[in-house]
Specification:
single chain; 5-stranded antiparallel sheet; 4 helices
Length: about 210
């Protein structure tokens, strides 16, 4: 399994880069049209027309909420990192739908890199024929897989409880029970994808709560 993951990593990185390029092209082609809307299975980058700096969690929550409305979703957890803001988008039943990033300078909201683009079987960008099989990894296994990966690659960190999204889990990484970052575990294969793009964790809130 570890050898398979090691061989698959360059391909995953390449696929992520291609997906990001496609997202940018789709956004550039369609975001100015008032009738254009994203749909499940095709996330086209940033679709929020209003652009303004995002200075705090409340600003990020509002930007993510405008974005989520394009799918009839709502915002759950919002986090601030040194490189920008992150938000979970939930469906009407409160289940995880996808994950987005909010740029602090422009207020742009877009699908998060990596698992949200490549592994998400409902809101990702991969054609249906390329999706992996049914989930084989349960939540407890996801934590154990994450902890083994962290033991080998991020000494001193361990995983918190997982949040399930279509096709994968995302887990906070902790040091002495304090959040450091996050990683994702593929629900079909058990592959791990560390979210290396966030930078240093600063603060978080649930949608609608005070900081």
């Amino acid at each position: 399994m570890n050898r398979l993951r090691a061989r698959g990593l360059p391909l995953a990185v390449l696929i992520a880069a291609v997906a990001a390029l496609i997202a940018s092209l789709l956004w550039a082609a369609g975001h100015d049209s008032p009738s254009w809307r994203p749909r499940a299975g095709m996330m086209a980058g940033e679709v929020t027309a209003r652009r303004e700096p995002v200075r705090n969690l409340a600003d990020a929550d509002r930007a993510a909420t405008r974005f989520a409305g394009h799918w009839g979703l709502h915002v759950g957890e919002v986090m601030r990192f040194s490189n920008g803001f992150y938000a979970q988008l939930l469906d009407s039943s409160g289940k995880g739908a996808t994950e987005v990033l909010v740029d602090p300078g422009s207020g742009r909201v877009r699908l998060e890199f990596g698992p949200a683009m490549i592994w998400n079987t409902a809101y990702g960008m991969m054609p249906a024929g390329t999706r992996l099989g049914a989930a084989k990894v349960d939540s407890g296994q996801a934590v154990r897989i994450a902890d083994r990966w962290l033991r080998d690659h991020r000494t001193g960190l361990h995983a918190a409880g997982p949040d399930l999204f279509p096709g994968y889990y995302t887990l906070h990484t902790l040091r002495d029970d304090h959040i450091v970052g996050m990683l994702s575990v593929n629900a079909a294969t058990g592959a791990v994808w560390y979210h290396s793009w966030h930078g240093r964790f600063l603060e978080m809130q649930e949608h609608g709560s005070s900081t």
